[in-house]
TrEMBL record, chains A, B:
<feature type="binding site">
    <location>
        <position position="237"/>
    </location>
    <ligand>
        <name>ATP</name>
    </ligand>
</feature>
<protein>
    <recommendedName>
        <fullName>Thiamine-monophosphate kinase</fullName>
        <ecNumber>2.7.4.16</ecNumber>
    </recommendedName>
</protein>
<feature type="binding site">
    <location>
        <position position="339"/>
    </location>
    <ligand>
        <name>substrate</name>
    </ligand>
</feature>
<feature type="domain" description="PurM-like N-terminal">
    <location>
        <begin position="33"/>
        <end position="142"/>
    </location>
</feature>
<dbReference type="InterPro" id="IPR006283">
    <property type="entry name" value="ThiL-like"/>
</dbReference>
<keyword id="KW-0067">ATP-binding</keyword>
<feature type="binding site">
    <location>
        <position position="80"/>
    </location>
    <ligand>
        <name>Mg(2+) 2</name>
    </ligand>
</feature>
<feature type="binding site">
    <location>
        <position position="50"/>
    </location>
    <ligand>
        <name>Mg(2+) 1</name>
    </ligand>
</feature>
<feature type="binding site">
    <location>
        <position position="80"/>
    </location>
    <ligand>
        <name>Mg(2+) 3</name>
    </ligand>
</feature>
<feature type="binding site">
    <location>
        <position position="51"/>
    </location>
    <ligand>
        <name>Mg(2+) 2</name>
    </ligand>
</feature>
<dbReference type="GO" id="GO:0009229">
    <property type="term" value="P:thiamine diphosphate biosynthetic process"/>
</dbReference>
<dbReference type="GO" id="GO:0009228">
    <property type="term" value="P:thiamine biosynthetic process"/>
</dbReference>
<dbReference type="GO" id="GO:0009030">
    <property type="term" value="F:thiamine-phosphate kinase activity"/>
</dbReference>
<feature type="binding site">
    <location>
        <position position="152"/>
    </location>
    <ligand>
        <name>ATP</name>
    </ligand>
</feature>
<dbReference type="InterPro" id="IPR016188">
    <property type="entry name" value="PurM-like_N"/>
</dbReference>
<comment type="pathway">
    <text>Cofactor biosynthesis; thiamine diphosphate biosynthesis; thiamine diphosphate from thiamine phosphate: step 1/1.</text>
</comment>
<feature type="binding site">
    <location>
        <position position="80"/>
    </location>
    <ligand>
        <name>Mg(2+) 4</name>
    </ligand>
</feature>
Amino acid sequence: MPAPTIADLGEDALLTRLFPLLPAGSGTLLGPGDDAAVVRAPDARVVVTTDVLVEDRHFRLDWSSGEDVGWRAAVQNLADVAAMGAVPTSLVVALVVPATTPVAWVEGLGRGLAGGCPEGVGVVGGDLSGGEHVAVAVTALGDLAGRAPVRRSGARPGDVVAHAGVRGHSAAGYAWLAAGRPVPDAETADGEGADAEGRALARAVRLAVRGYRRPVSPLVGGPAAADAGATAMLDVSDGLLRDAGRLARASGVVVHLDPPADAFGEDLAALAPVARALGADAEAWVLAGGEDHGLLATFPADASLPAGFRRIGVVGAPGEWTAGTVTVAGRVPSGPVGWDHFRG
Amino acid sequence: MPAPTIADLGEDALLTRLFPLLPAGSGTLLGPGDDAAVVRAPDARVVVTTDVLVEDRHFRLDWSSGEDVGWRAAVQNLADVAAMGAVPTSLVVALVVPATTPVAWVEGLGRGLAGGCPEGVGVVGGDLSGGEHVAVAVTALGDLAGRAPVRRSGARPGDVVAHAGVRGHSAAGYAWLAAGRPVPDAETADGEGADAEGRALARAVRLAVRGYRRPVSPLVGGPAAADAGATAMLDVSDGLLRDAGRLARASGVVVHLDPPADAFGEDLAALAPVARALGADAEAWVLAGGEDHGLLATFPADASLPAGFRRIGVVGAPGEWTAGTVTVAGRVPSGPVGWDHFRG
């Protein structure tokens, strides 16, 4: 018997199955089931952001499970809230799915949304529609708890540039899947079957593919950075060079990044086996790869960086380079610098 | 020269054109352009809802302009906020569009979002993605200003059932377009060219098609109903019978609707020429037609109905009929009662 689809079950029954999978959230006053939800906003300001994931643009159904897609949809929105210096409180989810979609896929999406949400964040509402392709539009809300929002535009010459989270993992995982290579199982990575090199590659591939499917954003770093005096901050979703350029442009400054080997030595080491196996360049993943959802922030030179952040460069004044420029090890990098959603 | 498309312009340039078209909103502390927006939530609770419009499910590009789609996407979300008894404050918009979409269509969408928003509501953020089909996911926020949210579940036997807004217009407009009939121009409706009957039909068709393309929800009625003591309320988006059934089920009551000629005489009269021309039943539009975004509410029997609401029935206790039943003129109606997004 084929697995039941949404068409078999119908909308109301599907929602009845879905609701219990979703996190309730500690700030939820009224959750799913009415025209709208009601969520605490203790600060009397609310931070709000929305991001959509579209099948065959942001994910492929053969590369990512429903759970993976739900996880990523949650994390990329939560990261945007954190990047303002706020604590996420809740999500609403608009889901477009073909009627032929298995019910289990949608249940997986619900579990993934739950998995991507830290303790206390609720999925408080949503909408479900038929459509030719899957699309998941998530809106996240957050609370500033008295903090000023940290914008992209406050970086000043002399500030330290710092980053929290991993770099290049998602791009490496994507490259592996795009090359059609199989993802090794846990046994290959950790068992006794393969040789040391084989196990190291398997572990690196699993790390990268997991980084692509279920990125982890250092969400607590956002409010911590705000408290530490961050002058500018953003979520690195479209690649470090491109997003650093946005910060530089908004702030009217130049961002000078340290050599990747210094700034991202750990990520380069972790991804080196994958890069070797694919004949690819791990530095390109680290500098230009998107969707790791780390936080890029600038701090006054004398600030103590909060836990999770490490120095990756310094802010300069325009002069030799125009405002908005990003240099790496003293030079303007050539090659692709990120992702335009329409021009690739 | 063909009209420029999104692919010609690119994402950043498109956003630069789009932002000035969007309303800023009186509660907006930080608008589009950063990772997230910041909006006032003076009540320290925020009302949040999301709804998605999908091409060829909720609109057709040959029946609705970008402006129409933006308008409807705004209104249907704002109505959900109002139906909780809240005042809408802001929207965020996730837009999926093929790269071949004309820039002018997206600009129209921006103007439509603005047109559908009452004074004071801002479009504070969004996301833009490529995709095979157009989809517009809007999330609306609102402020309760100290009111308790009005849920679906509070109706009590003896309450008056009341409705604000029009009924059946959107369904009639849809039926006209679905029949492939041309929409008369303003000259035909108001000029001297046609006979009286032709002018009346033209005016009725234009009213209905406008109701389909750009519904008007009685948004101020939401908070007014809450203030008048409404015991339950919802936005009628899937048809009166279906949504009244939801209210009845959530409240554990029976909803007895007055005969349509009494409850919706004005709407029936306004749509009569369209129904005659199509050989259709205006009562079915009024009772089962969706997407007018009127407000359905129940009030204590001794309450003064707020402006815009009129009595359309009474709440009964389960007994002869089970809880969740909706009767019309004392009988349970047969035939289609609304819309399931996957089973039609």
